[in-house]
Every structure is written in structure tokens, then in C-alpha cells.
Amino acid sequence: MKKIHKTAQEWQEILPPETYYVAREHGTERPFSGALYNNKQKGIYRCACCGEALFTSESKFDSDTGWPSYFEPFNETCISEKRDHSHGMERVEVLCSVCDAHLGHVFPDGPRPTGLRYCINSVCLTFEASDA
After folding, report:
1. In terms of CB atoms within 10 Å, which of 72, 86, 93, 110 comes out highest?
2. Which superfamily, per CATH, for 8-129?
3. Domain ranges of the chain
């Protein structure tokens, strides 16, 4: 997998302001505000920064948390995880493996079969619909 490296200025020039803030500055979008939160179509969720496939509609579930949630990533290499000690909390940050975009966090309270909940900012994703 080839890594993508850009300067902050290069990312600012190609990303909408809210996507830049969340994905590149480790922000978060308001709960229940994301365009993909209630998306029920079949398809693939991709990184809004680089286009890497991150999640599928088959792993999406309604967590009622305000952000799109998934119980597993698209594959074992598309995301990376990092300990996050910000805001006085112990969490696990989820990043795109290709461009290091901040996507959200993963929690151990999801459904079977993994028991994980990848809580992802909608603004960090694009959606590619499929008929399959």
C-alpha cells in the first residue's frame, strides 16, 4: 500500500473546510449531522481524503450514537489505530492507513461478530453505491 503525504496547505486546498478540520486536525462533527449517518444504500464507504475503501454497507449498523457505525473495516490493512488520550479520555483513534486521516474512534461495545463499534465521522467518508 502506497502512503500519501501532503502538507497541511495541500490538504486545505483540496478538502472542504469541515472535512479538513475533522480529518486533518482531529476534530469531530456534531452528532446526527452527517450526510451518511442514515444512509441505508448498499455500497462502499471510502476515505474522503484519498479514496481508500474503509467500510461496507454490510458492516454498518445503527448505534444511535449520532455517527455512522460499523462493526468491521473493509479489510485488515485499510485502517490503523492509535491510542488517544485527548479530552481526558482513554480511546482508540481510527485513521486511514493510506493518508493518516483521522476518521473517528473504535469502541468495544459493538454487535457480533466482532463486538466492535467503529464510530466514524460522516464528513471523513464518501459513499460509492453498488447494486450487489
Report:
1. 110
2. Peptide methionine sulfoxide reductase. (2.170.150.20)
3. 8-129
Query: Locate cell 475503501: which residue?
Result: 53
Segment 25-39, tens digit of pLDDT: 999 999 999 999 999
Q: How many residues does the chain have?
A: 132
3-25 tens-digit pLDDT: 999 999 999 999 999 999 999 99
DSSP 56-79: EGGGEE--SSSS-EESS-SSSSSE
CA distance 104 to 29: 10
**Cis previous bond, 111, omega within 30:** no
The grid cell for 58 is 454490510
User: How does 19-36 read in b/e, with b if 16+ C-beta sit within 10 Å?
Assistant: bbbbbbeeebbeeeebeb
Catalytic residues: 119
CB 9 within 8 A of CB 110: no
